[in-house]
Amino acid sequence: MTNCNGCLKENIDGFCSACESKLFDRSKVSCQLEFNWNDIQDRIMGLPAGFSISGVQPKGFVGRDKNNLLAPNRDIESMYIIKPFLDSRRTLHIDSPANEHLTMTMANQLFNISTAKCGLVKFANGEPAYLTRRFDRDKEGNALGQEDFVSVLNATPGTNDHGLYKYNSFTYEDVGNRLNPADQIRFIRILVFNFLTGNGDAHLKNLSLLESADGDMLLSPSYDLMNTKLHINDSKIAMNLFKEMERTKLNLLTKTYNYKIGDFLELGKRLNVRDRILLQIEKEFRAAKEDMLLFVNKSFLSDAGKIKYKEVVELHHELLFNS
After folding, report:
1. Are 45 and 39 in contact (CB under 8 A)?
2. In the beta sheet, which residues pair with residue 64?
3. With 0-12 CB in 10 A as exposed, 13-18 as middle and 19+ as buried, what is 176?
4. Count of domains observed in the chain
5. Residue of 189, 180, 191, 251 lying closest to 217 (CA atoms)
6. In whole angstroms, what is the distance from residue 127 CA to residue 104 CA?
7. What digits encode the pLDDT tens for the residues 120-174?
8. What are phi and psi of 118, to 5 degrees?
């Protein structure tokens, strides 16, 4: 059985028509690329490379010419970001593209969380890659206003902090206080989803505001969602929920906080989200475990990756709702 390389719809070889429309403006694009990651590295020409999952995942930029995805050069607008698999020092490293694709797709398909459009492709040598369409560009390739929360909150690195300021300068409560009421509801749902799917890398640079057509700065589609625990020994969440710094009990970093659904609901209350809405969020995610496990089975993860991913979902669901 083959599933769509975009939405994971069953019995689809390649991209279904809906995903072709969303990702490629209805163009017929093969999930088999004609170039390798080395071709992208060779053509970056000094442009900054991006990193995620604790700074170890490289990314490149890809342009499109009609029905072909091309390695980036100076003549083609880079409408897509592409990521190869992690280096071999990471557990289940070859699964990282399928991991991110699954997590992003699950967020959108099961929970209607707005996410960057994405798909799973293969380089010419058969190695898997994660492909996502840039949401900071319009259809003509013009840049849209985007500001991540390092900039919004004016977070600055300390001396030799090795990038940790993205995690510990501010809290999710600080982020939530800068959002409008509708986005605050979306934000709570994203945080619960991240916890259930083991995403320990949702730091300030992975949360952004995006300029709307009316000029308002709204919470951007989610991006860089993945189960980081498949690959590294990661924390349950990336940042503290509250200003009280609940994960540093008695200022001892080894004393970690045990999260419950009530903590996420408390954050919602601090952001003045109505109790009725918070209870709906709790009900939705409490009932979602089996659907999440079934969704993992549809993914392109290896058998070992599927087992590990489902173990994380089951453990975190138990921690959140039952323990």
Report:
1. no
2. 69
3. buried
4. 2
5. 180
6. 20
7. 999 999 999 999 999 998 877 788 999 999 999 999 988 777 778 999 899 999 9
8. -150, 170
Q: What one-character DSSP code corresponds to residue 51? A: E
CA–CA separation, 24 and 69 (whole Å):
10
pLDDT per position as a tens digit, 227-248: 999 999 888 899 999 877 655 4
Domain for residue 138, yes or no?
no
Is there a contact between 25 and 139 (Cβ–Cβ < 8 Å)? yes
CA distances from 136 to 139, 148, 171, 208, 214 (A): 10, 12, 25, 11, 15
Split at pLDDT 50, 70, 90, the class of 43 is low
Q: At 281, which amino acid appears? A: I
pTM (whole model) above 0.90: yes
Determine the Cα–Cα distance for residues 33 and 313; give it in Å rounded to an integer.
Answer: 32
- Do residues 9 and 15 lie in contact, with contact meaning Cβ atoms separated by under 8 Å? no
Angle subtended at Cα 189 by Cα 188 and Cα 192, rounded to the nearest 5 degrees: 90
Q: Pick the last residue of a domain from 100, 133, 166.
A: 133
Do 27 and 79 reside in the same domain of the chain? yes
* Residues 129 and 168 grouped into a single domain: no
Which residue, 196, 223, 198, is CA-closest to 208? 223
CA distance 224 to 216: 23
